[in-house]
Amino acid sequence: MLFGVAPAVLSDFRLGLLGKFLCFAIVAVGIGLAWGRGGMLTLGQGVFFGIGAYIMAMHLKVADAQLRGDTVPDFMQIAGLRELPAYWVPFSSPLVTVLAIALLPALVALILGLGVFKRRVKGAYFAILSQALAAAFAILLVGQQSTGGSNGLNRFRSFFGFDLADPVNKRMLFFIVAAILLLVVAATRQLMQSRYGELLVAVRDQEERVRFLGYDPANIKVAAYTVAAFFAGLAGAMFVPIVGIISPADIGIVPSIAFLIGVAIGGRTTLLGPVLGAIGVAWAQTALSENFPSAWTYAQGLLFVVVIGFFPAGLAGLAALRGRRRTTPAAVSPSQDTPAPAPEMEPAR
């Protein structure tokens, strides 16, 4: 459907919107693994999404500058910067950029996870800590003139040598992000059905019992947290050429909570629930915010509270419950054709 129906029936603009929604779905799959299966309320996925996005954005800006024959990107020239900052230089290489997108978010999550889970920080404390991390990262980027400040990075012209103004290349980006989503879903399904997936659920439900059996729950949590960060970094990297901009507003507290709302609505314990929930929430935000821009934020928060409070399994849980009710056989009532039990014989006297 993603590779056949969507490109055939959607315009280039709508196809680009769907590609943006698929980026959110990739993040949601990782949250479903960490939160739904591992019980870790990850409110800071915007950090890893932002790391992947800014790495890709820096490479694209440097590549555009090289195509024009300049040494620094256009926004740096306006700001009066004449030399490329040292931490921008490695991202001039496409290979280094791809490796950094794949490894840096996961490495940051690995370090944070070891520092947090080894100290047995969990529950609301972990959620608050991850949310504070997202807020700090966004504030840090706002104060950095070399990354565009609050305006972020935008106006990308090329993507690894391909002209982003060409509609054919825009469709290519959609196919790339759709393929990444399918690979991410397949990898997550394999993890869920493996022995590790069973251990992750066991840690969520009975952490102390898992520790008693000889496993370290911290290592199991760190692995899921790292995988979720890896997925978020990939999504952020593809978000940049598809949408054409990345700014601190896209990676702070509000976007991180929006990722979580989609997962909660779709069903965090299922495989495809986070995907469908993320796409549905993103579509609703795009459609409703055009008519009710100020009310969408309140509706989003109310929706999250209602789902968590009354439908913790999400829409996928409701569908599964309805299916079980349909397949439950009705109680068999005795009919007239059923022979009556034989009367007991009185004992002989």
From TrEMBL:
Main localisation: membrane
Locations listed in the record: Cell membrane
Segments for region (Disordered): 329-349
Composition bias, Pro residues: 340-349
Keyword Membrane: yes
Annotated keywords: Cell membrane, Membrane, Transmembrane, Transmembrane helix
Membrane-spanning intervals of the chain: 15-35, 42-60, 95-117, 172-188, 222-239, 301-321
Protein name: Urea ABC transporter permease subunit UrtC
Species assigned in the record: Rhodococcus chondri
